[in-house]
Input
Amino acid sequence: MTKEQDEQKMVDAIYETLAPSDLLKDPNRQILELELKKRKICAKEWGRILPDEKPDFIGNFYSCGFEYGDSLEGIFEMFIEKDGNNFKGKIEDCLGTATIEGEILPDKIIFTKKYIEEKSTQLCLKGDIRYEGYLVENSRGNYYMGEWSSFDQKTKGHFDLNATIF
Output
């Protein structure tokens, strides 16, 4: 199957899930939901959220202690602008778009993520989400591994993060 056929299959699958009347209720929200469904398909098919973009890092987050209906295990892509050890940028994942701000040290990464309400599903966590990971060096390459938690510490999980080479 060609890439064009794969993409058409993805579009067809997304539109099959929507009734025409849904678009009349809240067109902007429905367009967002279509985009998020496309991201889920890309993640499943290609292991990427935005296959045509070049992120600085690709990671996975794994949830524990909270249910959204779908598994929260998911791929995310980080796009950052560095200023010394500090960075700002965005994360794109199957739940939407989030702003990030943090610090990369020689053996550690710390950052705070906050979903942008109008660019994210209504099911995503509200408020700041803190990530803290440590550099792991092994024969397969270096990556960060750590924990994330909501501001109130009620929702927690683990993550891993790899620098990308595109």
